[in-house]
Amino acid sequence: MTKLSRGFSLFLVLLPVLLFAQPSQPHLVIIKYHNSNPLSQQLSGGNDLSTQTQINTHPVVHSSKSMTMPQSSIYMPSQGLSPVQFAQYQMATIKESISLDQAVSELSQLSGVEYVEPVYPVHLHEQINDPYFDQQPYLHQSNLHQLWRLNGLANVVVAVIDTGIDTTHLDLKDQIYENPFEQLNGIDDDGNGLIDDITGYNFFNYSLSGGAPNPNDEHGHGTHLAGIIAAKRNNTIGISGLSSQSLLLNLRFLDKNGMGTQVDAAMAIRYAADMGAKIINCSWGYFRLNTILKEAVEYALSKGCIIFAATGNSQTDVPEYPASISGVIAVGSVNLNHERSSFSSYGSYVDFVSYGEQIYSTLPNQSYGYKTGTSQSTAIMSAMAAEVLSYQPNLTRHDLESLFEQTASNNHQSSYFVGHGIVDPNRLLLGLNVDSDLDNPFTVIFESSSQDLNLGECLNYPNPVMGNHTTFGFSSDKNDVPVKIHIFSLVGQKIKTIEKSSTNAYNTIRWNIDEHIPNGTYIYVVEATYNGHPYYQKKQLSIIR
Fold it and tell me: Total domain count for the chain?
């Protein structure tokens, strides 16, 4: 999906400066070489090291370090490549007396340099929460739990790129993806440039120090998202994740304060794509973009990854990244009444919204608690996607996005604020053609056995129903035929039966909908009997009030 760019008034241009953290990491720039790689030339005996030497000795540079991009343990050995051959980047610390603008300008003039950029940070998209509120039933009240009827068999790998995950949590410890090609022995067994990356990797400060194999969560944000997505279900412990058959690829790049750089995030995204993650969850962002992050996102998309990113909690239409990058599915927040959360960022780049207020999930040290923000909304969307892909693993990003679009409703809110709206789980099930698997009483009675009655197609208006009533209409060629319309929920619970004796004309029956009937998708079965022969039709309607 193409993200749209727009100009902003002066007020909106200045507002992000007040809302977000410092515009870049102090005195740190990233330099990308042209395709000619100075380090690989050095290894192969070449002597053209002028670009790297000029950077290292440039008067604006305090120090610099080459950055090796991690490579997939799955693909690299078969290609006979060494990780150092991919060192196309240089991180440079600028002298404090030199402005970043001056440094970028001067270093960009060097031959062999493709671009030079300040290193931009990211921040988490969570709000302050109140742990004393009762647990919000976002799973059952919204019918998200209906997706468990898919009973998918595939273990979808979901990369949670965040503050890390508490892998000892009893609700999460069995849900962590393990690298089958690596052993805990201090050796890079799989040849991907990373040592002991068995249960994920810590990419925090990777661009400067090389990261670490321990991606444990010192903040809590990543563990909270992990529980939303894949906490173990039916284990008599804690909560249920929406997609508990999924495996969590634990990738940390944020510190204990929830801060990190886009450069480290880019490394984690590339690693996730190479390790086979189907879904990448990015519940963080910033209002400026480093090219290296954009390139990493494009790389992951090219490998078939589906990336969900939070729109942000800034209450403005200032785009944030990676949510605004083309191909990324941007997620905002709504409350349980499907109304946009007051904090949720908006704009033409928003694709969908999901629940993001007072979400209860796992926290480090065997704890649980509430968090609020578009971060949580994004995790729910990632989990929905994982649940669908576990049932139909061959769906592409475009397939999934199209399915979500067709089964979403914006509840009369502008797409500028909520995109396509919130995906209706019941519609989603029908879109996947799994309603015949649901335990309902009318799955075997839909063929007519009557040759005597000509009952026209029964339709209702309006559909979807946005008020407190709807009218069913059908034609009949007979008088005094008893016609019943049975309305069922998707799990087979009868909601209402309304009746009418037909006339040889167009017939209408009005249904006055009780206030307690929730929004959602319903099945209605038209039943008519003439001369002892039954006649049935099956249709569906939606209520969005």
Answer: 3
